[in-house]
């Protein structure tokens, strides 16, 4: 494999303008998410985004891959947060779109177009985001369930309830029963009221307080010991198909997590780690993709063994947008 050109944004690390009174920020693409959040926090604000490895992830990287995280449930996807962008086109010219105000309707919506485009349209050099206030307090709870079916019923009950939750995610593995995490943000009195409602909704004795670190659980998918026998896939399907999808993953799945990532809760994104011999993994991935695409879902392969024969990472065009 040969690379004729390497283009780096490592020096594009400036936070150009934090218009804190307008709840917007203009930042260069090479700035890390952690650096950006630390700067915004000085004015009690944040970019409502929780990508993997924020100390390493850059603004341009998360935009190109559309890596939103579980906060997407409450605040929307990256396409809902970005309001302006500048990209370098293949001929060297710069194209800008959007502006510095939240209610901006001028020009072609280039910011949403380049989000999740994986750099195929150009190199992102600058972005403008809308911001949200930092929460006064936050509290996470873990809810244990007996099986995937019970997990799905709990999630749907949460969505039909009056709970004002920020994020929900579920964890599945072959070794332990599934558990779900739910995050609340607000005042102390508000959190106490939310906890009471949650305990009334869940099965008796199934609710316990969880640590904030549970929201970085997706990183564990990449802590595999044998790259030659591991595949990682990003799955998108309806929340009502959660139990069925996890049962399909189970025969070869080492672990799976299902952070619910739909602003309208129409669909959910799940990550699954599968183990086995390369060609057996290929067959399992193809089986999963065929099943998911038959029900308006998709499967994108994020990692596969080098010795696996050729396999389309994306699936049917139009169905596998990140």
Protein described:
With 322 residues, the chain is of the alpha+beta class. Helices cover 25% and strands 28% of the residues. The strands form three sheets. An eight-stranded antiparallel sheet has the order 11-8-10-9-13-14-12-15. The protein has a five-stranded antiparallel sheet with strand order 1-2-6-4-5. Strands 3-7 form a two-stranded antiparallel ribbon. Strand 13 (253-259) and strand 14 form a beta hairpin. It is globular and about 55 Å long.
Brief summary of the model shown:
This protein is an alpha+beta fold and 322 residues long. The chain has helices spanning 33-41, 59-65, 72-75, 78-81, 110-114, 148-160, 188-201, 242-249, 278-293; strands spanning 15-19, 24-28, 45-46, 82-88, 94-98, 123-130, 132-133, 137-144, 167-173, 179-186, 207-210, 230-237, 253-259, 268-275, 298-303.
Describe the global form: globular
- Biggest sheet strand order reads 11-8-10-9-13-14-12-15
Spans of at least 5 consecutive residues whose pLDDT stays below 50 are: 259-267
| Structural classification | alpha+beta
* N-C termini distance: 25 Å
Helix proportion: 10-25%
Q: Identify the quaternary structure here.
A: single chain
- What is the strand content? 25-35%
- Work out the radius of gyration: 20 Å
Q: Sketch the topology as an H/E string, one letter per element.
A: EEHEHHHEEHEEEHEEHEEHEEHE
Number of strands: 15
Key words describing this protein structure:
globular, alpha+beta, five-stranded antiparallel sheet, 9 helices, about 325 residues
């Amino acid at each position: 494999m040969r690379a004729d050109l390497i283009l780096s944004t490592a020096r594009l690390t400036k936070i150009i303008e934090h218009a804190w009174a307008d709840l917007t920020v203009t930042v260069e693409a090479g700035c890390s998410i952690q650096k950006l959040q630390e700067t915004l926090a000085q004015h009690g604000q944040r970019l409502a985004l929780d990508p993997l490895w924020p100390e390493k992830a850059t603004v341009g990287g998360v935009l190109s891959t559309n890596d939103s995280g579980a906060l997407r449930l409450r605040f929307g996807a990256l396409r809902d947060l970005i309001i302006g962008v500048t990209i370098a086109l293949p001929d060297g010219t710069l194209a800008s779109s959007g502006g510095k105000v939240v209610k901006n309707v001028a020009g072609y919506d280039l910011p949403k177009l380049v989000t999740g485009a994986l750099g195929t349209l150009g190199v992102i050099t600058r972005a403008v985001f809308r911001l949200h206030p930092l929460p006064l307090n936050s509290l996470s709870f873990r809810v244990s369930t007996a099986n995937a079916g019970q997990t799905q019923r709990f999630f749907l009950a949460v969505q039909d309830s009056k709970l004002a939750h920020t994020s929900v995610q579920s964890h599945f593995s072959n070794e332990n029963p599934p558990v779900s995490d739910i995050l609340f943000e607000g005042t102390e009195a508000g959190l106490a009221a939310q906890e009471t409602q949650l305990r009334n909704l869940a099965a008796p004795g199934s609710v316990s307080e969880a640590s904030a670190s549970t929201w970085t659980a997706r990183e564990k998918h990449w802590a595999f010991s044998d790259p030659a026998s591991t595949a990682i896939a990003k799955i998108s399907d309806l929340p009502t198909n959660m139990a069925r999808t996890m049962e399909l993953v189970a025969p070869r799945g080492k672990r799976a997590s299902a952070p619910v990532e739909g602003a309208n809760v129409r669909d959910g994104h799940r990550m699954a780690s599968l183990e086995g011999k390369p060609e057996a993994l290929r067959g399992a991935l193809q089986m999963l993709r065929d099943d998911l695409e038959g029900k308006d879902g998709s499967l994108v392969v994020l990692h596969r063994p080098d010795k696996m024969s050729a396999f389309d990472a994306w699936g049917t065009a139009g169905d596998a947008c990140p």
